[in-house]
Structures are given as structure tokens and as C-alpha cells.
Amino acid sequence: NWRHWETKIQENNDSAPQMIKHVQEFKFIQDHFKGHRKRSRIFGWMRSFFKQFYGSVTEEDYTTMRLGFIMKHCKGTPKFNFYSYMIRALEVDFKKVVGISWYLWAMLMIFLLLNVEG
Question: In sequence order, which ranges of the chain are alpha helices (DSSP H)?
């Protein structure tokens, strides 16, 4: 979905950061913070738990994250591909968390080759 939203934004030329006049008018703010103190914590935890199993980022969330990132970090680049940046960042983080170094691979292969009886 993120790629589709990014191409839609690029085609509509909505990549230039707009001036934010009233934050309360954003659908993202209305959906996430309306009645925030009225909800119970247990309901919030349950909602967050089940939301991880389906599309947890909506189009409004993506557009808001993109706009905030461009306004903060890319002041001179209105045609910024936020989707490509996010994919690169997630791949780097994944390699750092899950990646295995070459010497660990070597130790693993030696252990597997020498462990013939067990």
C-alpha cells in the first residue's frame, strides 16, 4: 500500500509541504487523539495488539508521516520519495538486527562439520 500511496502523492504533485494552520483539521489527529483520555488503557492495549496483524498504517498516517519528515529533514527537496527512503531504512535496520557476521557463519559451519556424532 505504501508504494501505491507514494505514487498517488507524486502524481498529484502533493509532495510540497503545505502550511499547517489548524492541526485539529487533520484526519490523523482526529482519529488518534479524539477522546484519548476517555478510553481505558486495557482497550488501548487490546486495540494495539490486534492492529499489528492487519494494515496498521493507514493512508492518512502515511501522508502525515511523509509530510512531517519532509518538513523537518528535506526543506530543499519537495520531490522526495519517502517510500524508497523508508524501505532502505527498514532494510538497514533488519540487517543490523537479524544479520549474522561472516565469522559467526564460519564458526557455525565448523561446528556443524565437526559435530558428526551428535
Answer: 2-12, 27-33, 41-51, 59-73, 82-98, 102-114
CA dihedral 53, 91, 88, 71 (to 10 degrees): 50
Find out whether 92 and 38 touch, Cβ atoms under 8 Å.
Answer: no
> Tell me: the pLDDT tens digits for 16-28?
545 454 555 566 6
Greatest CA separation for the chain: 72
Predicted TM-score (pTM) above 0.90: no
Beta carbons within 10 angstroms of residue 20's beta carbon: 11
Instruction: Give residue for cell 518538513.
Output: 71
Q: C-alpha cell of 36?
A: 484519548
Give the pLDDT score at 15: 45
